[in-house]
Design brief:
20 strands; five-stranded antiparallel beta sheet; 36% strand; OB fold (Dihydrolipoamide Acetyltransferase, E2P); Rossmann fold; 363 residues; alpha+beta
Length: 363
């Protein structure tokens, strides 16, 4: 199944329903053969953007290009775009074979071509032996594969996936996202994947775009968004982050003084480009925090906070602590090793913040 690789480009796309702006000035380029995720909370505009690419809704401003050709006015069935819906949308009265063949029959392809292409598509998703079953005789994961086979059999230029794993249980989701990734690599098909699940996006996509309230917040590989979030929203949405409000009061040659609301002045060793003075959010990840008993020796490399454990959660590979520091709660994760005891609520602790892991964000 050799499919052409195409690029997709959105240029200054805006869409409103009445006075409600759903997409605001979206400019984005997806490279040929790329697995690209649109990530955001409910109502962020990610599914609207996907449906717009499919042709199911229409932007009022901007251009939408596939391989440099504007498809703005092109109806859905002429766009060469395949879409897998959240509920799979399989025909319940048809066999797996007939479901997969449906698009080819509609296109009036020859019987030989249909037999060859449907056979190849079912083989690709590992369902050759289920060809004569009906969808209600299949598991959720198998139905998902039928929906994928039905979409790729028409050899689309673009594959669009709208929350395709959300109906599956956790273990099956993990398995299916690996299968999706492998299928996409096998086909080399430019794929756009909508999800609200950050882990799903981070483990499958080459790059991802984070949307909030119809605005593109940041685009890049998962590691870039995780390590260098553009703003407070991205820091809090991609992964878990401690976000301290306050202001950068002083930027010296070797340290930054940050006035944290509810905590007070924190001195953080300079690392990377200096932040500018003024209102800011100090962000750092829970797994980068060093947590020590209140009387343990401290080193000079960290910025240390004194706090009291409010609660603890045992999550298997790690223990997560919520620690009251002044008027603020800081989350700290500690790897768990067999025989390690949990710190009790009320225990006095010191939290060490690693300067290289701190980001000062200005929205």
């Amino acid at each position: 199944m050799g499919l052409n690789q195409v690029s997709l480009e959105a240029r200054h796309i805006s869409l409103s329903y009445g006075s409600t702006e759903v997409l605001r000035d979206i400019t984005l380029r997806i490279e040929p053969g790329e697995f690209f995720a649109l990530l955001g909370p409910s109502g962020s505009g990610k599914s609207t953007l996907l449906r717009l690419i499919a042709g199911f809704n229409q932007h009022q401003r901007g251009e939408l290009l596939i391989d440099g050709r504007d498809i703005t006015g092109t109806p859905p069935h002429l766009r060469d775009v395949g879409m897998v819906f959240q509920n799979y949308a399989l025909w319940p009265h048809m066999t797996v074979w007939d479901n997969v063949a449906f698009g080819l029959v509609e296109r009036r392809e020859s019987k030989d071509a249909i037999t060859r292409k449907v056979g190849a598509a079912l083989e690709l998703v590992g369902l050759e032996q289920f060809a004569r079953r009906r969808p209600n005789q299949l598991s959720g994961g198998q139905q998902q594969r039928v929906a994928l086979a039905r979409t790729v059999v028409i050899e689309p230029k673009l594959l669009l996936l709208d929350e395709p794993l959300s109906n599956l249980d956790k273990n099956l989701r993990v398995q299916m996202r690996e299968e999706l990734r492998n299928l996409q690599r096998t086909l080399g098909l430019t794929t756009i994947f909508v999800t609200h699940d950050q882990e799903e996006a981070m483990t499958t996509a080459d790059r991802m775009a984070v949307l909030d309230k119809g605005v593109l917040q940041q685009v890049g590989p998962a590691t870039e968004l995780f390590d260098h979030p553009a703003n407070r929203f991205v820091a809090g949405f991609v992964g878990t982050a401690n976000l301290l409000d306050g202001s950068v009061d002083e930027v010296g040659s070797d340290a930054v003084t940050f006035q944290a609301k509810g905590i007070g002045a924190l001195r953080v060793a300079r690392s990377g480009a200096p932040p500018r003075t003024g209102p800011a959010t100090m962000a750092f990840r829970p797994h980068t925090v060093d947590i020590r008993a209140g009387d343990a020796p401290l080193d000079a490399a960290h910025t240390w906070l004194h706090g009291r454990v409010e609660s603890s959660e045992f999550l298997g590979e790690l223990s997560r602590y919520r620690v009251r520091v002044g008027e603020v709660v800081v989350v700290a994760n500690q790897p768990h090793h067999a025989g390690g005891a949990l710190l009790r609520p009320g225990a006095e602790v010191r939290l060490g913040i690693e300067p290289t892991q701190v980001r000062f964000l200005v929205d």
